[in-house]
Amino acid sequence: MVHGAGFTFQAPASWTVAGNAAVDGAVNRVEVLPFRLLRAYDAARRAAAARELDGLASRVAQQLKGTASAGRELQVAGYDARAYTISFDGKVEEITFVLHGTREYELLCRHAAGSALPACAELLASFRPRP
After folding, report:
1. How many structural domains compose the chain?
2. Alpha carbon of 13 to those of 38, 111, 131: distances in Å?
3. Which label site among 11, 34, 92, 98 has the fewest CB atoms less than 10 Å from its CB?
4. Is residue 101 classed as helix, strand or coil in its secondary structure?
5. Model pLDDT, residue 74
6. Alpha helix (H) residue ranges in the chain
7. Per DSSP, which regions of 2-126 are E strands?
8. Which of 25, 121, 108 lies closest to 64 in space, CA to CA?
9. Confidence tier at 5 by pLDDT (50, 70, 90)
10. Buried b (16+ CB within 10 A) or exposed e, 28-46
11. CA 22 to CA 47: how far, in whole Å?
């Protein structure tokens, strides 16, 4: 179990945990990055939040010299979330933004392209914000 500032998630037992991340080798990584929002997230503004996150995912893909998938809405731990897949340099980053009150959590899972990584699903299924 990885315990961060305001959240927990389960990482594979054989992986090395450092701070908010767990790694396995040079590529495989799961990580949660918490951010404070200027205003509390309001589900009524879901469309505006989606546009903002779409732009952010596009900028991350440009920085990585890769391409981003269209965002998709989902629920993580019962909260609104939006997920993207960014492909770059033979790798894939699956980024899911979870919006909870005045917090945004960026759940990241990186792995080699062409392979599924069970740790990605485990990250989403086990992530829990803490009060």
Report:
1. 1
2. 36, 17, 25
3. 34
4. coil
5. 96
6. 46-63, 118-126
7. 2-4, 7-9, 16-18, 21-24, 28-36, 67-68, 72-76, 79-88, 91-100, 103-112
8. 108
9. confident
10. bbbbbebeeeeeebeeeee
11. 32
Rounded to 5°, angle at Cα 16 from 88 and 28? 15
The answer to pTM > 0.85 is yes
* Amino acid identity, position 30: V
Per-residue pLDDT reduced to its tens digit, 39-60: 999 999 899 999 999 999 999 9
The 10s digit of each residue's pLDDT in 92-126 is 999 999 999 999 999 999 999 998 889 999 999 99
13: Cα separation from own chain's centroid: 20
Q: What is the CATH number of the domain that holds 86?
A: 3.40.1000.10
Expressed as residue numbers, the domain containing 113 is 2-129
Give residues with Cβ within 8 angstroms of 74, minimum separation 6: 81, 82, 83, 96
